[in-house]
Amino acid sequence: MKTYLLAGVLGLFVLGACNHKAHQHDTHEGHNHTEKQQPHTHAGCDHDHAHGHSYDHAGHDHSGHTKKGDSPGETAHSGDEILFTKEQAIAAGVKVNTIEPGSFRQVIRTSGQITPAQGEEATAVATVAGIVSFRQRLTEGMTTAKGTPLLTVSSDQIVEGDLIQKARITYEASLREYERLKQLVADQIVSEREFAQAEQEFENARISYETVARNHTRNGQNILSPIQGAVKSIFVKEGDYVEVGQPLVGITQNRKLFLRAEVSEKYYASLRTIHSANFSTPYDNKVYALQNYNGRLLSYGKTSAEDSYYIPVTFEFDNREDMIPGSFVEVYLLSSPLQNVLSVPRTALSEEQDNFFVYIQIFDEEYKKQEVTLGADDGERVEILSGIQAGDRVVTEGAYQLKLASAANALPAHTHEH
């Protein structure tokens, strides 16, 4: 009897243990994991657990995240996006434009120089020989009106003596001789030929004396500015001795300027198609378009110089920006137009290790850095050969701020860890 009772108790114990094991297995199949699992991603939504089991999570919900395309307005992050709020964009001056195909001109990029236009410069020269004296502070760049005294030339201390006094003496002597012969010719005592010669000498002496006496002071001969403008060059210094006609001060008006570009001979066949140009200056990093300054093509050389392999191309334009004559510039010669070209402003580009990028707005507060291949550059806009397409919303201002933000708050790859 006791043997039967012991066998019954053991049977009940075995049956209870089996039911408990089945319950644990059912719980595991219901995805209730108590053991630590390895991190998993959404690539195919397969989970690799420590048990070696593989489960299909097609209907698994991860804290509100869904796969791309599950519902409108929901997006998966690829890891390339840059988060930049509307408030940040406004503060950073970010501007976005939709890129569309348009006209773009072929460009010949070269160097050149800005020079004064003909007729825009004049030189004050010495009207008498003597010693130079500066009566006021005279510096390059200062403005001056026409007729303003620039400096004084005195002949008091030279061996030849005071030229003004000599001119006055010559004038007075020729005047007396002229008046004397005028009476004699009336009485036919002297010939008409003698009188004509005396009259000519008198007129020459008068003109010379009046010319030098007009600007003469007790300190010497004042040298006046021939035109209104700015002092470009000073060719003498205090105490120099100068001869009659020697250049003293150069004055420029700078109202008109020349842009002279030096073009390689290999572009000679394209020169006839050039009609305008852009250029950038080294002192303000600004690009100037000649079409905005009444620019016009004057000429291009038909041959190169003997000691050069370059052909000159010359433009004339209005100087409205106080540009510096004589400065060397970078020139973008504009040739035949091209159609259906994608281009962006130069401000849209950022450079990293000789590669160029733009930033594309993919959502209101999300941007993506995109590498691009550059084509022609006219100084203002750059042709894009690859990397973007028509309809892309590209950041045209504030790209640098996005570049800084990309290092700070780029969205990481989307992963989950259980």
Question: What's a quick, concise take on this entry?
Answer:
Helix content is 22%, strand content 36%.
Overview of this structure, please?
Helix 3 packs antiparallel against helix 4. A seven-stranded antiparallel sheet has the order 17-16-20-5-15-19-18, with no helix packed on it. It is 22% helix and 36% strand. The chain has 418 residues and is of the alpha+beta class. The N terminus and C terminus are likely disordered. The two termini are 55 Å apart. It is elongated. The chain has five helices and 26 strands.
Helical content class? 10-25%
| Strand line-up across the major sheet | 17-16-20-5-15-19-18
Percent of residues in beta strands:
35-45%
Main beta sheet, described? 7 strands, antiparallel
What is the C-alpha radius of gyration, as a whole number of Å?
Answer: 45 Å
Spans of at least 5 consecutive residues whose pLDDT stays below 50 are 1-7, 17-79, 410-418
Question: What is the count of DSSP helices, taking H or I runs of 4+ residues?
Answer: 5
Amino- and carboxy-terminal Cα gap: 55 Å
Tell me, briefly, the overall form. elongated
The helix/strand class is alpha+beta
Number of strands: 26
Which whole number gives the mean pLDDT? 77
